[in-house]
Specification:
2 domains, Aspartate Aminotransferase, domain 1, 15 helices, Aspartate Aminotransferase, domain 2, alpha/beta, binds pyridoxal-5'-phosphate, 4-stranded antiparallel beta sheet, 419 residues, 7-stranded mixed beta sheet
Length: 419
């Protein structure tokens, strides 16, 4: 693709963009009385204008029908989690039987670790990123403790090499191989939240399983952002949240994937509740849990309808726009951002996100050796929402459903004029 660093070029790209119309279907945070440009979809995706009606529908059905809503609401609550299977299975690349929504990310990580982290005295180690998101670290720390191990003995952290910012793929694979028989689980983010690095999930899974261990991924920054084929890559399990690229709203219900070899086997260990029980038997109030023969067999409690309604509206937009087209635009929009940044020579900064498009999603993390905080403030003052992490990292995520080429150009323009 031949890009140009001009507003005219960005305008032309927006004109040719068949997803451009979706931008009008979102609400934008206001800065000085105007719509901001929003590059924080990697932290909290925006609210689409369809969300309100979707939540209102459930409020109305509750108001008008009470308990009867479980079977007679417009979208019967009893089966609410079913409505997500089709769209989510396309987004994460799996069979409908392998995916469900429930709880939230860290809770689901704990629940699936209860299923999949079953350490023995010889095989008990977990490999994870040294720079993993804090919640994932706390989950792993307390899981190994729960099984009577301590962090130092049970957790192997993989870090970038001296002087580098991202992980080398070959280092991940060799660490798995070297620790082989002592590794119970490899649990990585699909995309690291800080650097924006996307891991090669397929070959990591392969190496993990070759070592006899379980491959699990936290896809918080990957779901709805990049191409995934969880089933074909043979991933054992994965969890994600729905409020980043999936635009489900703050604290939206989380998603999980369990490979069908476990999902269809009701004897796979888990912590259970009535919502994971075979529906035919659910109200017979009999003893003895019979798991549904799919990922919904991990559901525990009554579906959180009001919470799920906003994600439902958002996924309908993903269906309508088509995830394939969303990914195509995302790659190009981020490539355009990268191209523009490469034209800037007066600022001392580095894009720490990998340059290779197979190793990243929408986000670019920019490390400013100095004045990072000032640049962040300048952006906010100019009506652009980006995020800042010490030391000096500005994360920019042009989400394809509501960011335009002109938005990206505007970001560049401000940096260009920054002195
Ligand atoms: C956003 C994010 C979380 C947040 O977890 P919650 O349980 O939804 O609060 C956890 N892990 C990663 C990697 C994340 O990016």
């Amino acid at each position: 693709m031949n890009f140009e660093a001009s507003r005219r070029f960005a305008q032309q790209k927006d004109k040719e963009d068949k997803l451009a119309k979706y931008k009008q279907q979102f609400y934008f945070p206001q800065i000085d009385g105007a719509d901001s440009i929003y590059f924080c979809g990697n932290s909290l995706g925006l609210q689409s204008k369809q969300v309100q009606a979707s939540v209102q529908q459930e409020l109305d059905d509750w108001k008008n029908r009470g308990i009867a809503g479980f079977l007679n609401a417009k979208n019967p609550w009893m089966y609410y989690q079913e409505y997500f299977k089709k769209s989510l299975s396309k987004i994460v690349g799996c069979k409908e039987d392998e995916v469900t929504v429930m709880n939230s990310l860290t809770v689901n990580l704990h629940l699936l670790m209860l299923t999949f982290y079953r350490p023995t005295s010889s095989r008990f180690k977990i490999i994870m990123e040294a720079g993993a998101f804090p919640s994932d670290q706390y989950a792993v720390e307390t899981q190994v403790k729960h099984h009577g191990f301590d962090w130092d003995a049970a957790v192997i952290e993989i870090a970038p090499r001296e002087g580098e910012k991202t992980l080398r793929h070959e280092d991940i694979l060799s660490l798995i191989e070297t620790n082989g028989a002592s590794v119970a689980m490899v649990m990585l983010g699909g995309i690291n939240y800080y650097t924006g690095q996307l891991f090669d999930i397929k070959s990591i899974t392969e190496a993990t399983q070759k070592a006899g261990a379980i491959a699990g991924f936290d896809l918080a920054h990957a779901a709805g952002n990049v191409h995934l084929e969880l089933h074909d890559w043979n991933v054992d399990f994965a969890v994600w949240c729905s409020y980043k690229y999936l635009n489900g709203g703050p604290g939206a219900v989380g998603g999980l994937y369990v490979h069908e070899r476990y999902a269809t086997d009701p004897s796979t260990p888990r912590f259970a509740g009535w919502w994971g029980n075979d529906e035919q038997a659910r109200f017979k109030m009999k003893k003895g849990f019979v798991a549904k023969p799919n990922a919904s067999g991990w559901n525990i409690s009554t579906a959180q309808i009001l919470n799920m309604a906003s994600l439902k509206a958002s996924l309908e937009m993903f269906e309508e726009a088509g995830f394939e087209d969303i990914k195509v635009k995302s790659r190009e929009l981020t490539a355009y951002l990268e191209f523009l940044l490469q034209q800037l020579h007066h600022l001392d900064f580095e894009i720490i996100t990998p340059a290779h498009r197979e190793s990243r999603g929408a986000q670019l993390s920019l490390y400013f050796k100095e004045r990072g905080k000032e640049i962040h403030e300048k952006m906010i003052d100019s009506g652009i929402v980006v995020d800042y992490r010490e030391p000096g990292v500005v994360r920019v995520a042009p989400a394809p459903l509501y960011c335009s080429y002109q938005d990206v150009y505007r970001f560049y323009e401000i940096l260009k004029d920054f002195d």
